[in-house]
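Please decode residue identities from the backbone states below.
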């Protein structure tokens, strides 16, 4: 099979010729581990692109370091949120929110939408077509719950959603319109799937009640995902935290593949539920306890058990590798080694 066909088989719960693999080029991991990680990724290869084109990130400028040599950057993004970053390549923490004072809402707007015409767009569409001659292509669709937390303090957002205020509904509509523009752009490029991400859960429950999820989020996800379904493309959805209570809801609004936070689940039960619902699963080995503090043998055993639990060899899931700062090099080697072994 071509790599693209391999992924499509897994998503359709059909047996691929070998276990599909996705490698995320995390700038943080590549910055810490450098050329040896890049060489390892290139030797391994994956089904979502040509890893020979993967590059090391440019190092941060000197201005992004404190006098004591520690990385410390402050940035304001296109949403108007100010972020503090303490580890290069790792998501920061918001320290300034544009809508804490709702009187600013009238003058606030989403970032510029991607252009869907002109030379730049045509060049991107041609690049997408070249990519898909061999590889599976995922487009970016944005976030809703996370974007809400970027523009207004988290505790305020939770209270606003519970109270169902006019202002929170207006903010959500602005964000969702922007996300729909991202999804349209991905569809016009011809992407095979569009990926979205919202960390909806804590370690043991949703951050909002199931009722609030179904009232506030579910209709907006449905509006966002419907054009993708009509186009015959897939909806990928990432969510850290426990989302068992709304798995069926996510499937009903169109989610076809889920990237969950695996350590929070009974994996055998999650595998059964997702297979019953027709949700393919992106299998991302635990980046916390396992990869940071486990042994190479534990890494290998975990991956083999994971693939067996989800019956990955017969479709419905694929292996996902992302290297964070702090992973011992022996564990990284073990992770890539077992990935290459199972793909042989």
């Amino acid at each position: 099979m071509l790599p693209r066909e391999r992924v499509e088989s897994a998503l359709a719960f059909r047996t691929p010729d070998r276990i599909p693999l996705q490698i995320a080029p995390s700038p943080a991991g590549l910055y810490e581990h450098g050329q040896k990680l890049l060489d390892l990724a290139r030797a391994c290869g994956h089904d979502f692109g040509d890893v020979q084109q993967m590059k090391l990130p440019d190092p941060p400028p000197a201005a992004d370091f404190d006098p004591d040599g520690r990385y410390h950057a402050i940035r304001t993004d296109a949403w108007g949120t100010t972020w503090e970053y303490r580890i290069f390549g790792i998501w920061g923490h918001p320290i300034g929110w544009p809508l804490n004072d709702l009187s600013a809402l009238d003058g606030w707007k989403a970032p510029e939408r991607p252009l869907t015409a002109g030379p730049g767009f045509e060049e991107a569409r041609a690049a997408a077509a070249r990519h898909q001659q061999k590889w599976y292509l995922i487009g970016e669709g944005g976030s809703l719950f996370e974007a809400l937390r970027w523009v207004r303090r988290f505790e305020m957002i939770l209270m606003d959603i519970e109270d169902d205020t006019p202002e929170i509904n207006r903010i959500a509509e602005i964000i969702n319109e922007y996300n729909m523009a991202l999804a349209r752009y991905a569809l016009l490029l011809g992407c095979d799937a569009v990926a979205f991400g919202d960390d909806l859960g804590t370690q043991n429950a949703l951050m909002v009640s199931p009722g609030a999820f179904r009232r506030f989020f579910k209709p907006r996800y449905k509006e966002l995902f419907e054009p993708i379904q009509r186009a015959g493309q897939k909806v990928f959805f990432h969510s850290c935290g426990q989302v068992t209570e709304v798995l069926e809801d996510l499937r009903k609004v169109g989610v076809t593949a889920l990237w969950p936070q695996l350590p929070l689940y009974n994996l055998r039960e999650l595998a059964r539920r997702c297979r019953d619902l027709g949700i393919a699963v992106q299998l991302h080995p635990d980046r916390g306890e396992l990869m940071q503090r486990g042994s190479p043998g534990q890494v290998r055993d975990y991956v083999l058990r994971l693939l067996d639990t989800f019956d990955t060899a017969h479709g419905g899931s694929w292996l996902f590798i992302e290297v964070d700062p702090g992973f011992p090099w022996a564990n990284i080697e073990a992770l890539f080694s077992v990935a290459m072994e199972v793909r042989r």
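Observation: Residues 166-189 form the longest helix (24 residues).
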